[in-house]
Amino acid sequence: MKIVQFKIGSFGGAETFFFKTIRAFNELGIDQHIIHNEHPRMREEAGLTGLPRSEIPFPKKAIALRSRIALRKKVFSEKPDIFFCWANRAGRRAFRSNEFPNLARLGGFYKAKFYRSCQHLVCNTPAIVDHMVQQGWNKKHISMISNFGELTAEPPVERASLGVPDDAFLMLSLGRFDEWKGFQDVIVALRELPDNVYYCIAGDGENRRNWELLAEEVGVSNRVRFLGWRSDQAALLGAADICVVPSRHEPLSNVIIEAWSLGVPVLAAKSEGPSWLIDHGETGFLLPIADPEAIASNIKELLADRSSLSGVGRNGKRKWQGNFSKGEICQQYVTLFEDLIRANHKRKLFSLKLGR
Q: pTM value?
């Protein structure tokens, strides 16, 4: 089986999962060729896979004819069994061929018109499946395959290196500093919490300075730590008492799944993905969106009864093992690829018979 993997992006969670999936398929012995845009992080990460890759410029504001021709030429030259397009910028540039099936993966609520040249869709939540069906997609041509999140346990990072006391209650969030991520809600909630509660945020973005000023304004800057981008997520999660995902909008949430893989309890806002993933009080805790008071209230309850934390951590890990492990998700993909390849082979045979 050979797959051409096609992704256009800058770099964030979607791109991180793209390369995680490529590495997982590589472990299964699947032959792959990566096509990506000129972004330096995409180039770096593609190079680190050790797999063959092609770099093609794709203008953001227009679908350049030259780029489309270069893409078609490269894909056909690779003779793939599957042409796999990731998200809307790649999906918009997909093309159909009788030689191989194409499919696109969606991790968000995109417009169906972006995928009109795609034969099959992979959506990572039931809500995204419903969203595409409502826009006219035939459900027979959509598969629901979620993300896997699998971190290898590492020794917890020394809290002293984070500027956090060993006896503190540590909340941790990870992600890009976009407004909709909701990290500002946790900063505001911190002012209602005891002095032994600290908050670390691993990530970065244009809102960093705004949130640093917010922490000063509400009087909690001494208990908030902005860590920047980190590559030691497992070690950070191992040092935390709870992983907080306060996103106001979140189609899924890789962070939740990764925290579960390590048995770390999760507190999340009731946005789209977390509401689907978490059974409140069983595999995590769900709170109203953009509600600092609710965050503070729930953390106070956990401080008074820490035994519930270990229970939801264990339950989260069990749910991860059965539904979101790398082996489980990759097998779903392999089964889908085999089905699409088999169906395309039948179509080609039928076309040959008609030609005769």
A: 0.83
